[in-house]
Amino acid sequence: MGAPQLFSSLRCELRIIQAKNVESKSKGSFFVRYYLSTGSNKTIQLNTREISSKSDLSWNESFALDCFGSQDSMDNLKQQTVVFELRWRNKVPVLGNIGGSQLLGRAEIPWKQVFESQNMEIEKWVTMDSTKGHVLPKLQVGMRIQVPAMVEMERRTHGKVNKWDECGCKDGHCYSSCGDYEIFALAAVLEAF
């Protein structure tokens, strides 16, 4: 019989802040789509809210995921990346947002970079590979990893920390855990751990 498997937990947070150097569009909306790997050849896809192409490209949206798993699965997280895509959707007044979206730029950030950073937290501008035109869009993102002691300290400092059974936005942080899709995403992530 092998040694017993030790389990640990982490809180992984992503924040989509803003974009710049984006080719101007006369109508429609911009959003960021990002992909989280579950480690078992499955991927979770999440979208920010859509904002008008006539406004400043500032989302300031957060997503938090409490992960629980074996030490091996936590080590596997260090080998994964988060893929960010800047997208544009043409809004035709009669048809709404039927017809999909257009990829404007794509970038990846490895979780290893977050693990190796001071306080396991980064905030940076990433230059996206452009699929259209010569302008290289930039996206400002934040990524943070917390261990249970850090989560408890934040709870004591700022009050209650949101969990998966809560939803909505508070103080600029959105926790999307209400719908069936999010419950499926949580299950997919936990399956990997």
Notes on the protein architecture:
InterPro entries: C2_dom, C2_domain_sf, GRDP_C2. Pfam families: C2_GRDP. This is C2 domain-containing protein. Residues 1-126 form the C2 domain. It contains four helices and twelve strands. It has 193 residues and is an alpha+beta fold. It has one domain (19-152, 184-192): Immunoglobulin-like (Sandwich). β11 (168-170) and β12 form a beta hairpin. The longest helix has 13 residues, at 180-192.
Keywords:
six-stranded antiparallel sheet, elongated, four-stranded antiparallel sheet, Immunoglobulin-like, 44% strand
Overall mean pLDDT: 75
The total beta strand count reads 12
| Amount of helix | 10-25%
Instruction: Identify the CATH architecture.
Output: Sandwich
The unreliable regions are 160-193
Strand residue content: 35-45%
Tell me about the biggest sheet? 6 strands, antiparallel
Structural class: alpha+beta
The radius of gyration is 18 Å
Distance from first to last alpha carbon? 21 Å
Overall domain count: 1
Please give the count of helices: 4
Organism: Fagus sylvatica
Protein name: C2 domain-containing protein
